[in-house]
Amino acid sequence: MMLTLIDKIGDWNPQLFRELKGRLKPFPVLIALATSLATQLIIFLYQLRAFPGENYRTYNKYCNLNNNAATNYNSGLDICPTNQINMQLWWHDHWEYMFLSMSVIFIFTLLVAGTYLIVNDLSQEERRGTLNFIRLSPQSETSIFTGKLIGVPVLIYLVILAAIPFHIVTGKLANIAFSHIAFFYLILAASCICFYSISLLFGIFGGSALSGFKPWLASGLVMLFLMAMVAINQSSSYDNSSAFFRLFSPVDMTGYLFPNLFYKGIPALEQLNFFSLPLGKNVLNLMAIHLLNYAIWTYWAWQGLKRCFRNPNATIFSKQQSYLIVANFEIIISGFLLSGNYTNKYGFFHALQSLYAWNLLLFVGLFAIILPPRQAVQDWARFRYQKVGLSTDYSKKPLLSELITSEKSPAILAIAINLLIAASAFFAIILNAEVNVLRDNHHILGSLGVLLFISSTMIYATIAQIMLMLKNSKRHLWAMGTTSAAIILPAFILLILNVYPSKTDLIGSISWLFTSGFWYGVENSAIGTIVFVLLCQLAIVALFNWYLVKQVKSAGASATKALFANSQQ
Question: What pTM did the predictor assign?
Fold first, then answer.
């Protein structure tokens, strides 16, 4: 029967058939089911170890004489009589402990183990060379990756499916609403689709580079993320500046649906606001914002998969797509930050710094996914060189248009456009700030900080593009290492040297304004100092781009000469 079902699946999705046929073998299936049942039994027996017995004390929680524990102890009656133990409450609480334990196990097992299996599968396909055969398959990208997404972690799915009856039963015995259990499964499924889609994109990104380390890196990052979310949820406060990050975690929503997961009290997620709308007050609103966030980034992951799967040398996203991605990001992140209460200088600059931190991470990622490699730029430059030299119909291909939209042209102008999109979120916060916050030129300092963000990020982007133009085969690593060093090292060195910005310490202020931690300097520097550093950074941007233009022209000219030389032989 199972083989017949798999054959029918093969008619619908050949890739899924291939994955299921290779994994749904008797021994692995039995191991998966045994692991699931053993885990359920261990959790049940672990809870039973605390079963109240003959030596149960009156001061313990489930003794009805608990209120008179001190009197009973002094009278020598500190053993709680069996008929005074509230077994109904004990079982209720312990069914809930089992339910919550299983919920956390579901999250970590599906996201960590599933991510590892997907990235590892793609790495193995790359090493064996079978991924190229899949690329030549007439199947669509959607069919291939759907098969991977469903088929690769199928044994993990079996482990979870075998535990769901026990999970539901314990939830019902703990009087947990079935609607909340259903919401939990929905959020968990959406998070799996999102994480697995990003894992697929990560798995095919970069080819065989770091192929053996990729699965551990991906699953390790997911593990650290979930552990951080568990730690953060121990707090009863909710900071809107971290709300975007926390939207990716099913842990937050699980804590909201089952408040006793972390502490007894009001879930922190109730404080969530989006464009000042109190989404945290209603479970349906919270479900909607989480599912919408998962849907947006799943969509973009699949756009990247469809774009670069057939052509591994292409950038993950086109320049036009990057504009939409940045716009999506800024709308979501500013929706949370604009809900903050910026009635003082600290809150105002904290919001700007938080937005900067998120955007710095975004743009570092953007460098990796839209900056073209040397070969692509060389092909584009050769085309431009031939067009200028051999054709009078050059006006049909304006250089500005190509720099904004062409997939192979240097992406510095595209980065600049994305920076302008991001700057709109900063200025929205500045305009939204209370009038009393904007005294003492705080709005001017904030605006200058935004300009420093643009200029410094342009420097990092140009450095990355210059490194990608190297002839060295490890140019991607050089680009990553050099850009990371430019972002991290200056601020790190200043911290080690105990150099801090101050209006009375001109050198310290200038030094910090040239680092990625410039917002720290903006708060504590004079306006004239910030303007001076901004002008210096603009000069550096111009110098670096002048050098990049020379590199591109040289690459195009040399490629054209080589082409002509080969044609004459």
Answer: 0.88
